[in-house]
Amino acid sequence: MGDDAMNYRYFVLGLLAQQPMSGYDIKRCFESFGWLIHSPSFGSLYPALHTLQEDGCLTMQVLEGESGLSRKVYTITAVGRQALEKWIHESMNADISLKTFLMHLMVAGNLSRETLLTHLEQRRSQLADYQTALKQVGEATSDDRVLGERLALDYGRVLAAAETVWLDRKLAQLCRPVMAE
């Protein structure tokens, strides 16, 4: 199974940790962030829900609606919460993809402040390494590179610089002492 499919399953658990949802509600959440993480089709979402249910990570309850139509509502279980926590901590230790990082951010309500700070600091470190690598590639290449290669390299540099600025800003905000009310 591909990494994206596994990450989508854990992302679904993160959504369900926030509140019980129907498959349609989960799909709408994916679609609202589709420009960032890509939205799986219903044809792949429902088998993932079924597998999560078989694994004991969620339960499903059929609820009758006011209009007489029923809907399946999924709720995360203790096993699902443990799996979600394990995914968050294990995937933070590796060089994660931007898509996985964004999935973590979208379910950040499931993270402690310390875990979130650690996650952002690790992403910041990963980006610093990436920027160094991009700089080395740029210095090692000549100006006669194909236009598309030069554009892609420049695009990578700009995105990494922008994400670094954002991370620095968020880390500074989160490191401020929390004021007692």
Q: Which short descriptors sum up this protein?
A:
mainly alpha, Arc Repressor Mutant, subunit A, elongated, 2 domains, 181 residues
Write the layout of secondary structure elements.
Layout: H1 3-18, E1 21-22, H2 23-32, H3 34-37, H4 42-54, E2 58-64, E3 70-76, H5 78-92, H6 98-106, H7 113-140, H8 147-175
Antiparallel strand pairs: 1-3, 2-3
Helix pairs in contact: 1-4, 1-5, 1-6, 7-8
Report what the structure shows.
This protein is mainly alpha-helical. Helices cover 69% and strands 9% of the residues. It folds into two domains: 3-94, Winged helix-like DNA-binding domain superfamily/Winged helix DNA-binding domain (Arc Repressor Mutant, subunit A), CATH 1.10.10; 112-175. Strands 1-3-2 form a three-stranded antiparallel beta sheet. Strand 2 (58-64) and strand 3 (70-76) form a beta hairpin. The longest helix has 29 residues, at 147-175. The chain is elongated, with a radius of gyration of 20 Å.
Give a brief description.
With about 180 residues, this protein is mainly alpha-helical.
Trace the largest sheet across and list its strands.
1-3-2
Task: Output the number of helix runs.
Answer: 8
CATH 2nd-level architecture of the largest domain: Orthogonal Bundle
CATH topology of the largest domain: Arc Repressor Mutant, subunit A
What is the radius of gyration computed over CA atoms, rounded to a whole number of angstroms? Answer: 20 Å
| E-strand count | 3
Q: Could you say how many structural domains there are in total?
A: 2
H-E string: HEHHHEEHHHH
The CATH superfamily of the largest domain is identified as: Winged helix-like DNA-binding domain superfamily/Winged helix DNA-binding domain
